[in-house]
Amino acid sequence: MTEATTVTRWGTIQGREITFPMEVDSFNSATLGFSVPSAAAAALLPGDAFEIVEIAPGLAQFIVSLVDYVENPWGDYNEVNLGFLARPAGAGEEVIGSFVYRMPVDQEFTCQAGNEVMGFPKTVMGIDADYSPSSVTFTLREGDEVAFTITVPRAPAAGDPTRIEAVSYSYLDGAPYETPLAMDMATGMVEPGDVEFVVGTGPIADELRTLGMPSAPDFCAYGEGLSAVFQLGSAIK
Predict the structure, then answer these.
(1) What's this model's pTM, rounded to 2 decimal places?
(2) Where do the domains of the chain lie, and which CATH numbers do they carry?
(3) Phi, psi of 40 (to 5 degrees)
């Protein structure tokens, strides 16, 4: 963080001060995109303040992001993001962000902070990130049930990460909310056929099947040592 950066103090959670910008210095991630029926996607989008972005008539982009946070002010935790490209209802077609409808994490502090500060739908579940020299397997568990496992090759970076500006939508205290962020996009490209996706049992597995999962992704990118900056969000008027 540079000296010119203005620090905003949000408050404290569990005795720890929450400040913004919130800088994540290192994480590993696999990001996968799938074309799914937009009607099935809309059925998983809560409330009516946001709408699905169609990437083609009748098709939505389902984004699965599997994250191993290595150096993060909110903990060294694992996270699963399940969401769609979306926009505030009635916004112009040029407005595109993401709405994550499920965001399991495996630590309590980040769950509470994500819920109270950003309105993210974090819940505490079992998430494993198991590395081999050539691949990584993420496993999401709901209690005693395995919701899914996804294995991707640890594809080497094809260049420096690309920093993108994005916005993540949510509901904070029941009202529509947006969180701006800047994050590195991985440049290690994985062949879709090299992704192993196994859907298990339980409510999340059942939701995935309504979207046609498991299937081969449209794309998959993998990266290690990535970074991101989250800004304090605001209510959407």
Answers:
(1) 0.95
(2) 25-230 (2.40.400.10)
(3) -65, -35
